[in-house]
Amino acid sequence: MSTDPxxxxxxxxxxxxxxxxxxxxxxxxxxxxRLDPGTDAVTFSAFxxxxxxxxxxxxxxxxxxxxxxxxxxxYYRRPSPYTAPEHLDAQERAFVTAHARHGLGGVLxxxxxxxxxxxxxxxxxxxxxxxxxxxx
Length: 136
Fold this sequence. Notes:
This protein has 136 residues and is an alpha/beta fold. Helices cover 24% and strands 34% of the residues. The chain contains 2 helices and 9 strands. The strands form 3 sheets. A 4-stranded parallel sheet has the order 2-1-6-7, covered by helices on one side. A 3-stranded antiparallel sheet has the order 3-4-5, with no helix packed on it. A hairpin with a 4-residue loop joins strand 4 and strand 5. The chain is globular, with a radius of gyration of 16 Å. Residues 120-136 have low confidence and may be disordered.
């Protein structure tokens, strides 16, 4: 696990724009962890010592490990919605999905780093688009 300042890219598996960004970052020797919370299995262990920033690790199902204290930025591109295993009933899937979103999303949202692309346009009831912060 590298402790060099890393970029987390949250996007779906097939995203050519993110691929170009990641290629450029790799060319600059910036560590990158690509993650899709809707399709990737993720495990993490994290805590915040009093008066300090996050410490711990995040590991993707593909074996990429990330020191949470080393994240320099999170690029929110186009991740798939959080999902739960199909064998669970509807109530269990809703529970697991909400906890995954709040758990992983809460940790990523609380990191002391630069966030890129956190605004999106969403239709409001009056038919006009208004900027809304992305819900992790």
